[in-house]
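Hi W., the LQXTBERG complex you wanted:
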Amino acid sequence: MRCAAIIVAAGSSRRMGFDKLAAEIRGSSVLRRSVDAFMATEGITRVIVVAPEDRFASLGSDFPKPLLRMDGGKERQNSVENGLSLVMEELVAVHDGARPLVKPETIAACILAAREHGAATLARQVTETIKRSDADAFSRESVSRENLWFMETPQIFRSDLLREAYAEVSKRELVVTDEVSAVETIGIPVKLIASPSPNLKITVPADIELAEALLK
Ligand SMILES: Nc1ccn([C@@H]2O[C@H](COP(=O)(O)OP(=O)(O)OP(=O)(O)O)[C@@H](O)[C@H]2O)c(=O)n1
Ligand SMILES: C[C@](O)(CO)[C@H](O)COP(=O)(O)O
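Structure:
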């Protein structure tokens, strides 16, 4: 099964305060690192970057596989839907452009799981004590961490399933923050693959320093 990658990169970096996808981490931009990881992954046929023209142009053109651009949408889920309109492959991997540390061998493991189960995502098991607070940030109750996971990307699906899921999301006018939430609406279980190495989402300035340190 061939797999296309959609790399969503049309956000506005509000929490960072400047274009985080252009930030350099050890000589390469955050977005270029994300694109390079998919270009180097066996099984990925084409990479679709959802981004404005200038951000796309900054990536350059020296890539070993086809690289396409699509306009972004208002919310992340709209950007993913836009990218999906270009997908012809049987599988599609959706990845945040803001996760530059993902490794080709990890993406490949996730593709294998998606081939087997129809839907798979990288994720990280919760390892700390979890509390629910009141509106004034006073701890009110404990939440069991058993079977709790943080969702990461890539999130990889049979393309027909993801299309059906987003059609359902649109029909019900739902807001979803990832594709796993979208496919939940059509009752599809998603295989969770524990990330073997840090795959942080660059969100605030300290994340750039952390990513640099992790690449030492
Ligand atoms: N309308 C949007 C919103 C987000 N994204 C992308 O989705 C990924 C995850 O989003 P996030 O890390 O929240 O990025 P931003 O939306 O840019 O950040 P912020 O919420 O701080 O503005 C990023 O690669 C971002 O570029 C997108 O393609 N289109
Ligand atoms: C898709 C995601 O990275 C999974 O953790 C996350 O939901 C996207 O983050 P956002 O800040 O809500 O766009």
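The radius of gyration is 17 Å.

W.
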